[in-house]
Description:
The structure holds 2 protein chains of 2 kinds.
Chain A: E1 5-10, H1 14-26, E2 32-38, E3 42-44, E4 63-65, E5 74-78, E6 81-85, E7 90-93, E8 98-100, E9 103-106, E10 110-112, E11 129-130, H2 135-146, E12 151-157, H3 167-181, E13 188-193, H4 203-215, E14 218-221, E15 226-230, E16 235-238, E17 243-245, E18 248-252, E19 255-257, H5 259-262, E20 289-291, H6 304-322, E21 335-342, E22 345-351, E23 360-362, E24 368-370, H7 375-392
Parallel strand pairs in A: 1-2, 1-9, 2-5, 9-20, 11-18, 12-13, 12-18, 13-14
Antiparallel strand pairs in A: 3-4, 6-7, 7-8, 10-19, 15-16, 16-17, 21-22, 23-24
Chain B: E1 2-6, E2 9-13, H1 30-36, H2 45-61, H3 67-72, H4 80-86, H5 91-99
Antiparallel strand pairs in B: 1-2
Helix pairs in contact in B: 2-5
Amino acid sequence: MSDPKRLVILGAGTGGTLAANRLRKQFPPWELAIDIVDEDDDHVYQPGLLFVPFGLAAPDEIVRSRGAQLHDGITFHLNRVARVDVDANRVELGDGATLEYDVLLVATGAVLQPDETDGLLGDAWMDSVFTFYDMDGATALHDALENFTEGRLVVNVVDMPIKCPVAPLEFAFLADWYFTERGVRDAITITYVTPLDGAFTKPVASNALGSLLEDKHIEVVTEFNTGEIDNENKALVGYDGTEVPFDLAVIVPLHGGAPYVAESGDLGDELGFVPTDNATMQSMVRPNIFVLGDAADVPTSKAGSVTHFEGEVLVDNIASFLDGKPLEASYDGHANCFIETGFSKALLIDFNYETEPLPGHYPSRFGLPLLKESRINHLGKLMFQSFYWHGLLPGRDIPGIGADMPERGKATVDN
Amino acid sequence: MTIARLAGVDVQLNDEGFFVDPDQWTPEMVPQLAEEWGVPGPLTDQHWEVLNFMRKEYFEKGTGPTVRKLGKSADVSVGVKELYQLFPDGPAKLAARCAGIPKPKGCI
C-alpha cells in the first residue's frame, strides 16, 4: 500500500476546523494524513464578540479549545507558522519544525492591524479608543461603556475589507438600545463613520433599511478615510484633513492576512490575502494550495457563513484534486447573516456574488423574514452559537441550508 | 442616468457621474473627465498609475481598490497621503470617475 497523501491545514478556526472534520470523515487515515496548525488553543466564536461590550455575553461563553473541536485522527500542532515554501511544498513552523504537504489549505483568516493607522495605538488606546474585534478590546469596552453617561460615541470603520462588515453597524444599533435602557441615551450622540458612500450601499437594502439609522438617531458620516487618531484632541482625522471629534471611539482597525503570508514568496497580495479562484477555492498561487474563509481574496464578505458555504465546495474540490479529477464544485458567493438592530430584534440578509440582499423569506417561502426587523431573527442569531459548535464545526449538513443561494421565497427586483 | 459626450463618444453616466458601463471608457476621455471633476492638472504619470491600477483591479476583482490597497500596491508609486494630493476629494470618488469604474460597495 502506498503512503497516505498529506494535507496540511494552516489555522484551526471556523474554516480549518470544518474542512479538517469533513475531510476526515470522507477519507480514511491510510489514504489521507491531516495535520492542522494554530498558534493558540482558543477558538473564539467571533460573532459573540459583538455582545461582550454590552454584557450580553461573557468571554468564557464564546471561547472553547481548538483541539477539542477536531475529530479523532487529525494531528493538531500548537505552533506558529513561520513561512510556507510554495516551491518545496513545505511549511516551516515557529520552533523550526517543518511539515511537508501534497495539498495545503490556508485558513488563517484575517488579523487586526491597528499599528497601520497613525495614533491608533497612542495614549487613548484602551482608555477612550477601543475595538470590539478582539477579546481584550471587547472586554475593556464593556467597562468603558458602563461608565459612559454623556458625550459623543463614534463608531468607525477605518477601511475595507473587514470581518463581518455589518458588525460595526450592529454595534451602533445595540449602543442605541443599551444607552436607552440605562436612561442616558438623550445625553449621548452616536455617529457611524464609514469609508463607503453610505451605511447601506446596495439599492434594495438601502431603500428597506435607510430609515433605521434616522429612527434610532444615529448620525452617519460617509466617505471618511481615517488617516490618524488625534489622541490629544480626541478626534478622527481624515486624509483630506476633516475631523470627527469623539469622547469614546470604537474603531474597527485595518485588516490583513496572517503575518507569515508576507514571508511566503508570492502566496499573498498587498494586504496578505491569498489570490483565490472565486468559484473553486483553489489558489491562483499553486494548484495544490487551496484557501478557505477570511484568508482568501474572493469578492464577498469575510464572514462565518461565507466560510461555511465555501467549505462545502472546497471539501469536494480537495477530494477531486486528490483523486486527480477536475474541480467541479462551484461556490456562488452565497452569504447570509443576522443583523442585530437592538431591542431584541434582528434582520436577516442573504446574498451572493451576483444577487444583492433581497426581501422575502429564507430559505423558502415559509422561512425567516429577510431584510425586515423581527424577534424571530434575533432568536435565530442567539441560537446560532449552538449550531456553530455542534453542527457547523463537526461538519454536519442541515437540511434546506446549502452552499448555493436559494431563490425561492425571495422577491424579484429589476436592477 | 445621463449621456455625456467624451472624446467624441456618447457615454452613459449614472446620477453621481460614474460610468454605467466601464467598457465604454477609453484613455482619450481622461483629460476631459479630470477637468470636469476638478482633478488638479496637469495629469502626471502618477495619475495614470492610479487610473490603470483601478481598472485592472476592477476587471480582476469586480470592484475597485480601496484607498489603502492603492497606497500599498506595487503598481502605484505613491502612498495614501500623496493620493489625496493627486485626487483631493479622495481616490475612490474622483479617480473612480476618471477611470470609468463604479465606487467600491459594501455587502448591504
